[in-house]
C-alpha cells in the first residue's frame, strides 16, 4: 500500500511540474520590429536606447524566463509609404509587436496594418492626440500625448495674460491635430488662436519666409511653433533674420526644440542667438534608478552604436527605453497566462493575393488581443517614471519642464502637470500633496525675454497689415456737441471724437484709422444698426455716444466708460406758489392725528398723577377738562404754567418734552424747506407714476430708450413718440399730452443735461432708473479695446477727460434734477419716540395705581377697626364708589382726618354715625370743589 501511495505522489508532482512548465515557459525567441527615422534627432537617440533595452532584458533572468527578444530595426525616413512596406515585411517574419514609429504621420498609416494583423504598435514619439481614438485600438502610446502639452501651452498663455496667439506649424497630421488641440485648450480659458500659419511639409525657405511675413502682419506677437527638428530650426533662423525674435515678440516651441538642444554635445552659440528668450517644453522624466543606469552607460552605448559620432540622451530616449521594457513585462504576463505565439492566414488578404506582392506570407497574430490587454495592464517604474496607462490609454502623470533659452544655455523656470498646473516645485513633490490648481498657486520663475528683458511682453500690437482701422461714427442731427460729421469736408469732431483721439495718442504704438459717418444726415441713426456693422465686418470699431447696454455687450466689446449715463425723465414744471394751508404739508394726516392723540394722552396721564396732590389739577369738572387741554397743548411751546409735584408726573413730562422738541424741530425744518426750496411741481414724480399713466412718452430717435421702455418696462408702443431735436423736445413738452404733445421724455442724462442748459422751465424728475455709460465698441476679444480702456483711465486720472468735457459741454443749472414731491413726515419716522413715551405713560400709571391701591387698603383697614361690623357691611356694598371717592379726594385731607379721630369715640359713635360722617364729609368735599 505504501508503495502505491509513493508512486501516486511522484506522478502528481510530475503532472504539476509539467503543468507549470506549460504555463510559464515561452518560446526561445520572440521577434519584434522597430520603426524610426535614423537620421533624425529623436530617431538616432531612440535607436541606441532601444538596443540598450533589448540587451538589458535579454541579460535579466528575472523576466521572460529565458525567452530572448530579437529586434529588427527599419528606417522609415518619415515616409508613410515606406513605413507600410516595412511593417508588412515585419509581418512576414512573425513579429508580435512593433516599437514605433516616431512620426505621427507614419503612425496614422501603419495603425491600419496593426489593426488588420492584430499586432500592437507601441510608439514612443507619435504624440498626435487623435491616434488614441477608437479607430486605432492596437495603437499604444508610450509617451505623453500632445493633448497635455497643448494644455500646458494654454496655461502659459493664460498665466502671462495674453489673449491670443499665432500658431506656426507643419501642415501634416502631427502639426494640424496638435494645433487643433491647442485651439480647444485655449478656448477653455477664453483665449484663441488669432492666425494659423501653416507650412507645407518639405517647404523651401522662401515659402517659410512668406508664411512668417504674413504672420508678422497680424496683431498677435505670441507665436507657438509646433514643428519637426529640421523645419523648426529653419523657422527660427528665418524669424531671426526678419527681426521677429526681437523685443515684444514671444516664441513658445513645443518639445521638439528641447529634444534638439538636449541631444547636442555642445550648444552652438550661433544657433542659440536665433532663439534668445524662447520658451520651450520638455517631457518631464523622474530621477529613477533605471534612468541613472542608462545615463551612466550612455556614452559607451553611443560609441558602440554610432562609431564615435557623439550625441546626448534626450527625454524621448527614456520613453523609447521604457517602451521595450513595457513590451517585455507584457510578454511575461502573456506567457504566464497561457498565451503562445501563433499566426493564422488572413482570409481578406488571401482574397486579394496574387502578383509579386506575396500577400500570402502575411498572417494575423492570434494572441494579439491578449498581448494588447497585457500591455494596457503593465505597471512598473521605468527610466522616465511610472509606466502605467489610464482608462483612456494615456500614460499617467503627464508633466513637462518649462525651459527658457538664454545666452548661456537652458534654464528651467518651472514645471507643468495636469495635477497642479504651473509650479516651481517638481511634480514628484506635488504628487505627495493634495492637488491644488488654483490661480494663486500658479507660479513660475522670472523669464528672460527677447532683448534680455524681464518685463513680460504685452503680446499684442496693432495689426501692421497696411489697412486703416475703419471706424463708424453716428452722423447725428441733434446734440452735435457729442459727435458732428461734416458731409462736405468729411471732418468729424465733437466731445466723443476728442476723447478717442486723446486715448489713441496714449497708446505705445501707432494706429492708422479713418472715420466713416453712419446715417442719412436727416435724422439720428439707429445705434443698434450701427453696432451691427461691427458684427458684419463693415466697421472695425464704433466711436461715438454709444451706450453700453446688455444686448450690445453680447455681440461686441466695449472700452471702459468715459461718460456716466443712464435713462432719466425730463418733464415740464411750473412754479408752485405758497397757499394758506402750506403749514399743514410737513406732516401727513395720520401724523397730525397721532400727534394730537398723544397730546391728550399725556395731558390725561399727568392729570391722573397730579390730581390728589396738586391744587392746579383740582376744581370743578369743567375747569379740570380745560386744565387738561391747556396743559396738553401748551407743552408744544413749553409754555405750561402748571407745576408738577409728583415724581412720576415729572418723569412723564421730561420724556414728553423731549418728544415734543424732536417733533417741533422736524416740523420747522420741513416747513422751511417747503416754503423756501420747493417751488416747482409736476404731475410726474418718477418712473412708476409715468408708467402708471396713459399719457404719451417721448424718446430720442435712435436711442435704446424705446426698446427699454417696451421690452423691459412693458410700456405700450402706441404711447411712444419719437423726437429728433431739442426744439422738438420743447415743443412736445409745451403742448402736453392733451394737445398732441408728451407728458415726459425718457432720454439719457448727458443729452437731458445739455438740453436743460438752455431751457429752465423743464427739469429731471426722480432718479436715474438705469445705470450705464458711453464707451467705444470693438469686435469681441479685441486687444485694442483693452489698451484703450487703460488709456481712458489715464485720461480720467490726469484730468484731461474733464478738460475735454468742459471744452464741449456746458454745465447744467443746479435745478436740472428736481425732487418734485418732497418726503413728508410720517408716523413711522417718529414711531420710536412715540413708543418710548407710551411705555413711560403706562409705567407711570401702573406705579401710581399700585401706590393708590395700597393707600386705599390702609384707609379701609383703619375705618373697619373704628367703625365696627356695620361699617364693614356698608363698605362691601359701596367699595368701588368708595375707591373712586378715595382716589378723587385730596391726599392731605385724608391723612389729617385719620390722624385726628379718637379711636374710643369712633367705637362709641356706632356704625351708622360713622358711615353718615364719612358720607357728609365726602359731600362737603365735593361741594368745596
Automatic annotation (TrEMBL):
InterPro entries: ANF_lig-bd_rcpt, GABAb_receptor_plant_PBP1, Glu/Gly-bd, Ionotropic_Glu_rcpt, Iontro_rcpt_C, Iontropic_Glu_rcpt_pln, Peripla_BP_I. It is found in: Membrane. Residues 904-929 have a biased composition (Low complexity). Residues 470-811 form the Ionotropic glutamate receptor C-terminal domain. Residues 1-20 form the signal peptide. The keyword Mitochondrion does not apply. It is a multi-pass membrane protein. Residues 902-929 are annotated as: Disordered. It holds the Pfam family ANF_receptor. One of its GO terms (cellular component) is membrane. CDD domains: GluR_Plant, PBP1_GABAb_receptor_plant. Gene3D superfamilies: 1.10.287.70, 3.40.50.2300, Periplasmic binding protein-like II. The chain crosses the membrane at residues 591-609, 651-675, 827-853. One of its GO terms (biological process) is monoatomic ion transmembrane transport. Keywords: Glycoprotein, Ion channel, Ion transport, Ligand-gated ion channel, Membrane, Receptor, Signal, Transmembrane, Transmembrane helix, Transport. Belongs to the glutamate-gated ion channel (TC 1.A.10.1) family. Glutamate-gated receptor that probably acts as non-selective cation channel. This is Glutamate receptor.
